[in-house]
Structure formats: C-alpha cells, structure tokens
Design brief:
The protein has 154 residues and is α+β, with helices and mostly antiparallel strands. It is built from three helices and six strands, in the order αββββαββα.
Length: 154
C-alpha cells in the first residue's frame, strides 16, 4: 500500500493539490484539497481494504439552502445518472451532500485518479447549480402566488 500512497501523493503534487497522510495502514486514508471557483474541495481518499476493493474519493459539500430530503435525493439521483464514472451521492442534511467516487484497481492510473478528482468537482458544480435553480424557481413561484393573492384583494 505504501507504493500506492506514494503514487497518490506524487499525482496530487503534480496537479498542485495539497495532500497529507492521515492513516498509513490498511486501508489507508489521505486527505487532499484543491481550490476552484466553488471554493475549497476537501477530498478524503480511502484506500482499498483488499486487492479487489476500490479506492474511494469521499467528500461533503454544502448547498445554497435547505431542500426537502426526498426532493434532494431525486435531484442527486438525476445528477449521478448523467455521469459515466462510478459515483454515488446522498443527502447528508437538508443543505449538505455526501458524495463518493470509486476507482477500482484496474483504473488506478494517474489519468483514472485525476478523472475521479474532476468528477468530484463537476458533480459539486452540477448539484449546486440544480439546487440553486430549484430554489430560485420556488422563490419566483412564491412571489407570483403572493402577487396573485394581492391582486385578488383589489
């Protein structure tokens, strides 16, 4: 596992991402961070427990505002179904999302790893945009309903 940890740290350094080892055991755990237009993206890299298990990129991010859990779950399902990577997303709270990207041993190349990292970035951007759009639509509908109610009173 030490060779894989070294390789992951090297790939992070080449991309300009911060990376540190939290647990060098089996499974190992690293934490990496990158900054983009969505802010800091902190990704926990959980190493495989065995030779056939995947490496998992895990992260949590916040949303523009709270959304009912069932609606957020439907939105997340729609977002991950559009991706070709092995990703999963679950509501962590009304305004937080937990996401995981899995990379199996056969995909553990620098390219596969970077694809997983960029999937993390893209999914955060897609989900945040969808939630912001939904919240804006709800606010507009509420304003129209209030305006209609006020005009009924005239």
């Amino acid at each position: 596992m030490s060779a894989l940890i070294d390789e992951l740290q090297r790939w992070c350094a080449l991309a300009g991402f911060g990376c540190r080892v939290v647990d060098p055991g089996t499974p190992f755990r690293l934490v990496m961070g990158l900054e983009d237009d969505g802010g800091l993206l902190a990704i926990t890299i959980d190493g495989p427990a065995g030779p056939d298990d995947p490496l998992r990129l895990r992260y949590r991010f916040d949303l523009a505002g709270p959304m009912p859990p069932e609606r957020l779950a439907r939105l997340l399902d729609a977002a991950i179904m559009q991706r070709s990577a092995m990703v999963d997303a679950r509501p962590a709270a009304a305004d937080d999302v937990d996401m995981v990207v899995a990379l199996y041993p056969g995909g553990m190349t620098r390219h596969g790893f970077m694809t997983g990292v960029f999937e993390c970035q893209k999914l955060r951007r897609i989900v945040r945009g969808e939630v912001e759009g939904a919240l804006a639509s709800e606010a507009a509908l509420a304003s129209l309903a209030a305006l209609a109610d006020a005009s009924d009173g005239l």
